[in-house]
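Tokens for chain A. Residues wanted.
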């Protein structure tokens, strides 16, 4: 397979066939992220992508595929349709394809384009939200504000594609911890994705955020303050449909899995007990955390 650089995927795509369609990130400005800066963004040549699909056709057992790239949805619709149809032709057992789609990429697609992609096999889009607080989104240079994220979410859902959104615990710093959690929970509730997950901020060397940390312009919440953010987000998530909420990423201190709204009270109580105990033995050790 022609993988270039670091190829990332969501935890839920661990057993999917991974086909890389783009390299780097077309936005490449977020203050907390360094990986997009490692490579100039570009869309891979269609012939290279199809050769990877051909190679993958020799392997059996895959029923899902993931089109890798930090914002693979930015690939022109016609090319994505070609990739999806060729993938299905060569691997007929695959019944769902997923990809990352940042807010900008989603808003570049019309609902009709998204419906075309769905009909060709695109089943789920992973949208990074990070925060529901406007000031924090501006500070981290996310490139999308809450109203744009909401519009993008509505567009995906209108097309009948599953929506999975991620948020980032700790991204508001200690100073704005509660404000970040409340606004993020309410924002997720308004968007009501099919899936939502919380990752925990890990400060990466050489990023703008790491410089702010060294210069005492940013202070990371401690482990239990991060768990409190998780609790407050869930408390404020008044979803209008069933949503599977997880914190099972390698960066998280406390893995949880809950179906909202059904499990809200139970999971909030569980997190509250852990916070109240201050027992670090129930948390994931630092050496086991990663991106």
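Reply:
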């Amino acid at each position: 397979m022609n993988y270039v650089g670091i190829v990332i995927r969501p935890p839920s795509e661990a057993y999917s066939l991974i086909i890389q369609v783009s390299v780097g990130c077309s936005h490449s400005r977020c203050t907390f992220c360094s990986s997009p800066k490692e490579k100039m963004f570009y869309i891979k040549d269609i012939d290279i992508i199809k050769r990877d699909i051909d190679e993958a056709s020799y392997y059996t057992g895959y029923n899902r595929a993931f089109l890798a790239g930090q914002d693979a949805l930015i690939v022109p619709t016609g090319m994505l349709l070609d990739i999806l149809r060729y993938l299905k032709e060569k691997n007929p057992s695959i019944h769902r394809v997923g990809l990352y789609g940042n807010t900008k990429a989603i808003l570049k697609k019309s609902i009709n384009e998204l419906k075309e992609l769905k009909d060709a096999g695109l089943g789920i889009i992973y949208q990074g939200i990070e925060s529901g607080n406007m000031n924090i989104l501006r500070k981290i240079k996310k490139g999308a504000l809450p109203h744009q994220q909401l519009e993008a979410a509505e567009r995906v859902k209108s097309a009948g594609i599953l929506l999975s959104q991620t948020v980032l615990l700790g991204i508001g710093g200690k100073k704005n911890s509660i404000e970040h959690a409340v606004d993020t929970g309410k924002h997720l509730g308004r968007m009501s994705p099919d899936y939502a997950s919380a990752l925990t901020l890990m400060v990466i060397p050489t990023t703008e955020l790491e410089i702010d940390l060294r210069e005492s312009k940013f202070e990371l919440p401690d482990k239990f303050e991060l768990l409190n953010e998780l609790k407050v987000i869930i408390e404020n998530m008044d979803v209008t449909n069933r949503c599977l909420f997880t914190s099972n990423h390698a960066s998280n201190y406390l893995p949880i899995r809950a179906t909202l709204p059904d499990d809200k009270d139970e999971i909030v109580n569980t997190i509250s007990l852990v916070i109240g105990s201050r027992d670090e033995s129930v948390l994931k050790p630092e050496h086991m955390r990663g991106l």
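The mean pLDDT is 94. The chain has ten helices and ten strands.
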